[in-house]
């Protein structure tokens, strides 16, 4: 039985998406076992950028890399690996992935995920990823939470699938996700407030002042620490997410990775009717300059993303 109904997937990408879904379903079973599956959240080393690698980060990376062999993927780029791998000289696609996002939540039973982005392979490994984010032909995330979900776009809207635990297959739940234009919630890591630049501070204060301030409506606050969980909430009921650049050393360009996190989530959000910027410029108009580079990221309900750009003047 296929891991996802191929009818919803462009024919040329079916083997790739099938492999992502089959591996996602496997990983979902490991994650559901938690400590019974071993010390998934144990630190096992550092990735090329000095971020601690958890056991599940490495396990997920190895599982996706192995599953994508022979599916048409030529180049495989992973947040957990320093350089791009050539999986199949004869392949046609280039796939970038954050195999396990939100690893600080592994041991506390909070939603974590896998993020992926697909391009047509270019003349070289690096050139296949260092290019305009608008060159993506597909993007998606798998969320491992109370349900295991897949949100995916091929450039004609964002679809939502739910993993049926009885059959182990992803079933279509929503043909076109519709991100509400107006927001009732905002999310940012508030512990960094003293490091924020004035436009971000002004926006957060507007949200906090609610009906008593310029915004004229109350905004609730959320922060999960897993980009996949935040994105899914916002795609479902609207809201705003900010991981801006700030004054801390190493956070001049924020924390999130352009190739593995920012570009794919921007594609999904825009295809669902939302907006995604670096605070000002649309992410899809930007070009990655380094494989592991970070970019400031603001996305969500169009009204709010426009307001944040306005505050950046
Ligand atoms: P980890 O995968 O290292 O836990 O990072 C998660 C993440 O990349 C993203 O999923 C979160 O939105 C963000 O970082 C959380 O950052 P803070 O730890 O600064 O809140």
Account of the protein in words:
This protein is α+β, with helices and mostly antiparallel strands. Helices cover 26% and strands 24% of the residues. It is built from six helices and 15 strands. The protein has helices at 14-33, 55-67, 198-209, 227-237, 258-271, 302-311, and strands at 43-46, 52-54, 73-78, 85-86, 93-101, 112-120, 138-144, 148-153, 158-164, 169-174, 185-187, 220-221, 240-243, 275-277, 297-300. The strands form three sheets. Strands 4-3-5-6-7-8-9-10 form an eight-stranded mixed β-sheet, sandwiched between helices. Strands 12-11-13-15-14 form a five-stranded mixed β-sheet, sandwiched between helices. It has a two-stranded antiparallel ribbon with strand order 1-2. A hairpin with a 3-residue loop joins β7 and β8 (148-153). α1 packs antiparallel against α2. The N and C termini lie far apart (53 Å). 48% of the residues are buried. The chain binds 1,6-di-O-phosphono-alpha-D-fructofuranose.
